[in-house]
């Protein structure tokens, strides 16, 4: 590896005093960063700090309004994403850029499919190439599988395989572990280290600071579109140092007492439930005011169970009870309006938001029916008064509530997808990967809001692949494996023992089989 401490090292990629302005917004102001050969460089900052804008400049999506990009010490002008790709700059975006109706193999080879208008596609070679790169990631996926049939986490891994297949010298990874379990993250990090040792330079964007400390050599921190630090060595930097650079103050750590709900009324109860998606004999109870964590590896069936509870797919056996009474949920509208169950989707882009509509319309969609008068009439002012406190509490960075949601950063979109359910005042809330793409300060606010929501009596079913988040929030943790419940644990908030207990339950079913 290159000597990263040497000032004479020519960076593979350098941003020198780069600026970018949008109408009414100074996204980047004189930002600098040096990406050294064979290194993993962290790019940190809160949502709206300018990380995504810098990545889009490096990948040719945007042109800078000031400053210079250099590749191997030579100034370059990128005229588009293909220009960046041709120069060996690859990217794995936080928002997946796969074509759902195409197969995994077709997506991985998308940039190389139509090299000549009269040349047919060699699908055998295409699928063999895909198998190679899927194998590098340890993924057992048939390349002929349509992407639409994959879980969000597997889509993320296919996106990484696609970027690797282009043999990029510079690889930009925007929240690559957001939908991965700890086990999958370990495997990914092993791969990234091998790539680094082979000379690939990587820019690693993540809100998980423990990952940054584990994998990264250097760090650049942005705050309000400016450098809080530029290309600083990670040696000697602790979590508190990174947090202070990102938010300008020390992190506030929640230390909530243990709660018990044995005598609380049942808000949601599944007994012997089977579903059209393959769940078998699922028993699960969430009591009023309780936060129950649902943990499992990718493919365990957690998100699929949530969608069956919401009426998106049929429950084929067993019983579902809401507030102690049998519930017949056949549509999502039933779940929301008849049984007051809300669902924060893990896939905000496809399921959680309407990207072409405004912040106000997205945040208010769950309260329209409740707020409308007897004639069915509703004013923006009425909706605004209901949703604005939650938009403000979550610190959504938007010029106004009339801003189109698709124009906001991914993190701010996630805040809105949470805010709409906080405003809805539902009795049961299913939260699926709530903090994906959310910065540290907002994540703490979100945790406080979920805790306050549960304190007010809302039952919460929490699905997250973030083990620290699970152990921070959940009162009780239920483990799922292979579409069945493997067991459950009372949460003692002892991270070491809880993580060991969870992994034991995950593998217990496999051992029994």
From TrEMBL:
A GO CC annotation given for this chain: plasma membrane
Subcellular location: Cell membrane
Protein name as annotated: Monosaccharide ABC transporter ATP-binding protein, CUT2 family (TC 3.A.1.2.-)
Keyword ATP-binding: yes
PANTHER family in the cross-refs: CARBOHYDRATE TRANSPORT ATP-BINDING PROTEIN MG119-RELATED, D-ALLOSE IMPORT ATP-BINDING PROTEIN ALSA-RELATED
Family of the protein in this entry: Belongs to the ABC transporter superfamily.
Bilayer disposition of the protein: Peripheral membrane protein
Lineage: Bacteria, Pseudomonadati, Pseudomonadota, Alphaproteobacteria, Hyphomicrobiales
SMART domains: AAA (SM00382)
Sequence ranges assigned to domain ABC transporter in this UniProt record: 13-249, 262-507
Chief subcellular location: membrane
């Amino acid at each position: 590896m290159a000597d990263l401490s040497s000032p004479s090292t020519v960076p593979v990629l350098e941003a020198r005093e780069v600026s970018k302005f949008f109408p009414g917004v100074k996204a980047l102001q004189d930002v600098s960063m040096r990406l050294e050969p064979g290194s993993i460089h962290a790019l940190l900052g809160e949502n709206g700090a300018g990380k995504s804008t810098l990545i889009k400049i490096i990948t040719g999506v945007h042109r800078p309004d000031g400053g210079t990009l250099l590749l191997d010490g030579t100034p370059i002008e990128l005229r588009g994403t293909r220009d960046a790709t041709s120069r060996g700059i690859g990217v794995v975006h936080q928002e997946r850029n796969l074509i759902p109706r195409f197969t995994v193999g077709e997506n991985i080879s998308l940039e190389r499919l139509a090299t000549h208008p009269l040349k047919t596609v060699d699908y055998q070679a295409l699928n063999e190439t895909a198998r190679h790169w899927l194998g590098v990631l340890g993924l057992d996926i048939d390349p002929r599988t349509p992407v639409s049939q994959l879980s969000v986490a597997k889509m993320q891994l296919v996106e990484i395989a696609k970027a690797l297949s282009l043999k990029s010298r510079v690889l930009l990874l925007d929240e690559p572990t957001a939908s991965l379990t700890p086990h999958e993250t370990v495997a990914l990090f092993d791969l990234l280290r091998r790539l680094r040792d082979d000379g690939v330079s990587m820019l690693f964007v993540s809100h998980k600071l423990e990952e940054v400390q584990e994998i990264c050599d250097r760090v650049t921190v942005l705050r309000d579109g400016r450098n809080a630090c530029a290309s600083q060595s990670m040696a000697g930097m602790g979590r508190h140092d990174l947090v202070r650079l990102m938010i300008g103050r020390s992190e506030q750590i929640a230390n909530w007492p243990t709660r018990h709900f044995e005598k609380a009324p049942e808000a949601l109860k599944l007994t012997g439930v089977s579903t059209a998606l393959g769940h078998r004999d699922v028993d699960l109870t969430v009591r009023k005011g309780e936060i129950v964590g649902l943990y499992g590896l990718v493919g365990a069936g957690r998100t699929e169970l949530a969608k069956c509870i919401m009426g998106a797919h049929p429950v084929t056996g067993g019983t579902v009870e809401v507030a102690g009474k049998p519930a017949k949920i056949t549509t999502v509208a039933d779940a929301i309006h008849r049984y007051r169950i809300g669902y924060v989707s893990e896939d905000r882009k496809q399921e959680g938001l309407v990207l072409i509509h405004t912040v106000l319309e997205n945040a208010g969609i769950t309260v329209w029916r409740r707020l409308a008068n007897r004639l069915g009439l509703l004013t923006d002012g009425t909706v605004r008064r209901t949703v604005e406190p939650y938009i403000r509490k979550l610190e959504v960075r938007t010029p106004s509530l009339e801003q189109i949601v698709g124009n906001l950063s991914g993190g701010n979109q996630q805040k809105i997808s949470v805010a709409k359910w906080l405003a809805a005042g539902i009795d049961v809330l299913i939260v699926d990967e709530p903090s994906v793409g959310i910065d540290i300060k907002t994540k703490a606010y979100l945790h406080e809001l979920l805790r306050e929501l549960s304190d007010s009596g809302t039952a919460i079913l929490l699905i997250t692949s973030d083990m620290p988040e699970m152990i921070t929030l959940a009162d009780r943790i239920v483990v799922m494996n292979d579409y069945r419940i493997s067991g459950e644990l009372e949460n003692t908030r002892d991270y070491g023992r809880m993580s060991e207990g969870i992994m034991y339950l995950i593998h217990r079913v496999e051992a029994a089989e």
